[in-house]
């Protein structure tokens, strides 16, 4: 799968209005990010290799420039020594010419290698731009994925709640409560009835005691009437 195909696939997952068309947009996005990270690793490896070549080539070009300058310096020294009588002028000029020839060769090589170094540096800069773009894309899609996961979780929870609410039968629930209420009232009535049945019949002693208690109450009532008369209330 090409890089641009993956970009297109991930881009599709960002289109909120078409999320439902995907079988699993989160998994597709995660796979796209993994693919991008692999591309990033490959791009960084290539970048390191091209930069290394660029560094070596530039260093080679600089060395050749230094050699060219050194040959020119040696040619000048030879001529100066001949001029001072330290060397035969003819030999000095011959050696100086050889030195200048090597200087020209090194200068030409330095120019060629320097051009190669420029090309490698340009390639390294392009790769660096691609690496930066992939890094930025990964960061963007990772942030979008966090948002997408949160939205998916919220949507799933909302969907479950709405499904549960849709299943609730209010009329059936009310009918069930009414049945329970009737059953409770029936049980309570039966409990009272059984309590009355369980109460033992009064014995003769109970009736005698009850009559005596009634008589005592009457005595108390008589006393109360006498007290009221005494106080002038009656």
UniProtKB/TrEMBL annotation:
Membrane-spanning parts: none
Pfam families found in the cross-reference section: PspA_IM30
Keyword annotations: Coiled coil
Coiled coil as UniProt keyword: yes
Coiled coil: 89-144
Family, as annotated: Belongs to the PspA/Vipp/IM30 family.
Protein name per the record: PspA/IM30 family protein
